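Protocol step 4 of 5: obtain the predicted structure for the target chain.
Materials: sequence only (see below). No template structures provided, no constraints applied. The aim of this step is simply to have a reference model before the mutagenesis design in step 5. Sequence pasted as it appears in the construct record:
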Amino acid sequence: MYGVIRNLLFRMPPEAAHHWALRGLDMASSVGMLKAFYPAPERLPVRVMGLDFPNPLGLAAGLDKNADHVDALGQLGFGFIEVGTVTPRPQPGNPKPRLFRLPEHQAIINRMGFNNEGLEHLLARVDRCRYQGILGINVGKNKVTPNEESEADYRRGIAAVYDRADYITVNVSSPNTPGLRDLQFGDQLESLLLAIKDEQGKCEQQHGRYVPIAVKIAPDMDAEGIRFVANALRNTGIDGVIATNTTIDRQAVQGHPLADEAGGLSGAPVREPSLRVIEGLAAELGGALPIIGVGGITDGASAVEKIRAGASLVQVYTGFIYRGPALIREAVEAIRDAGLLNTGEQK
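Step 4 output (structure tokens):
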């Protein structure tokens, strides 16, 4: 069934298809069609960052930037849903066109630029949700905020979403906000992580609950970069790391007519770069904090290899666009069959 729907959607421009696909999910959800056609996989519980996930397969940030469709997405069987990236103030993102499909590679290039309706809109949407599962909220900085002032944007985002989120993700790795990835390195990273932990501590005192915070990093770093990031995460007490965001490398899609489009490449071509970073982080961290693996999961086998490499949870986005809801059950069942998880706290 999804194959027919996808063929129709792929006749539209990618951003229009994205909009209508989510509207369609909302309509199907409202009449009970999603649960009928796509029953949730059997439970495969895992405890990570102090949270109990019904299964280890989640939806990555970016698909539902404004938390407009959480209830419908929550009926598809994801173990958790991450919304955002949300910035303190609304921003339109980059000029269109800014989203491109590469079907031959099961890939997407996007240069959306953190287009979102801002914190106020997202919080209002979350407050209206009936979804009872684990919800992550991904926060970023506004494009007009200089890097040297980015700490204030991240503090504002964390403080605003703290009492609505089960966990918070800090995005320092999108290639579509100028200079953002510079925050992953050097003194800027250490300073930002310390500020994040400080804000987390203040929010914990205010709300009387501890909300874990993960940092999302890029796949485009060498072994030295991975070692530096791992040490910074461990030394500052960050609760988790999401590896990885999209890549700016085009080697895997060389020769494609769209290969030179600016933006982040996601989907199957990121499978190996993401895996390399996960393996490097796992070796450097030694279980000090959990890894959430994302990038290039298009089938059960690619989900399993991320768990095998050291991830405790995995997320999908582009693979979900190409494969549809069937990917959720396939990935969860493959992880179960591999016998790689236990029900204790995962590192």
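Step 4 remarks: The mean pLDDT is 92. The radius of gyration is 18 Å.
Proceed to step 5.
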